[in-house]
Amino acid sequence: MTRPADFWNSVYDDDTAPWVIGEPQPAIVELEREGWITGRVLDPGCGAGEHTILLTRLGYDVRGIDMSPSAVEYARANAAAQGVPAAVFEVADALTLGDRADFAGDPPGSAPAFDTIVDSALFHVFGTEDAERAAYVRSLHAICKPGGVLHVLALSDTEPGFGPRISDTLIRESFRDGWTVEDLRPARYRGRITDTVAQNAEGLEVSESGKVDLAAWLARIRRE
Ligand SMILES: C[S@@+](CC[C@H](N)C(=O)[O-])C[C@H]1O[C@@H](n2cnc3c(N)ncnc32)[C@H](O)[C@@H]1O
Question: Residues in domain Methyltransferase (predicted)?
């Protein structure tokens, strides 16, 4: 089983989440600059909300969802503090989005709502859990319009680091049916060293502010 909401809540409540870095991921900022984000956007597992805040500020129609109420509370406060109170967040389980008529239509999958999905460090959470990973891929398929794009930024197993690190093969194999992996390249995911990961930080290049750019994959996957 992947971690329950209580685990995710605790790292926001204690402010020990190593992915809460006070800025959007540079790889996602770059994606937006290159024009890879269009139309209605979903930010699943939005965490502190940095990507929803960034995209709302830039004028996108975007919604951040997270299964952790503490994450959503954190994201709303973060958006207000950054002067973007219009950023929209809600508590939702990314594994069952197809059940939402407003996201997927009724019957499920008949009217997918999203043109672009920006997954920053959620897919890898399901990495070793075959059933949950498959449920997540099905859930995204139901809500992503045909021809729409899913971006996956996931920690990579090619270098030492912390967090759930996965292979590029796992990404390709997960999106065989109903999707086309158009691009899959090495990237970086920025994290910060907190008490929860300090023991795994040996040998990593850590900046003066305690941040580290971990090996990652960036995939662009088109919904057929
Ligand atoms: C590693 S964090 C990444 C947060 C953010 N996207 C980022 O890159 O900073 C993963 C997030 O996914 C959320 N999460 C985990 N399982 C989830 C699920 N089944 N549905 C929705 N959110 C989930 C966690 O609460 C956590 O906020």
Answer: 40-152
Calpha distance 42→83 (Å, rounded): 21
Q: Which amino acid is residue 2, in one-letter code?
A: T
Q: How far is the CA of 183 from the centre of ligand 1 (A)?
A: 23
pLDDT averaged over every residue in the chain = 96
What would the two tokens of residue 94 be?
């990314």
Please tell me if the CB atom of residue 189 comes closer than 6 angstroms to any atom of ligand 1.
Answer: no
Q: Is 46 in the pocket of ligand 1 (CB under 6 A)?
A: yes
Q: How confident is the model at residue 202 (pLDDT cuts 50, 70, 90)?
A: confident
Res 1 pLDDT > 70 = no
Q: Which atom of ligand 1 is nearest to the CA of 189?
A: 8
Does any ligand 1 atom lie closer than 6 A to the CB of residue 13? no
106-148: per-residue pLDDT in tens? 999 999 999 999 999 999 999 889 999 999 999 999 999 999 9
Residue 13 CB neighbour total at 10 angstroms: 15
Q: How much distance in Å is there from the Cα of 146 to the middle of ligand 1?
A: 25
Mean pLDDT over residues 32-36, rounded? Answer: 98
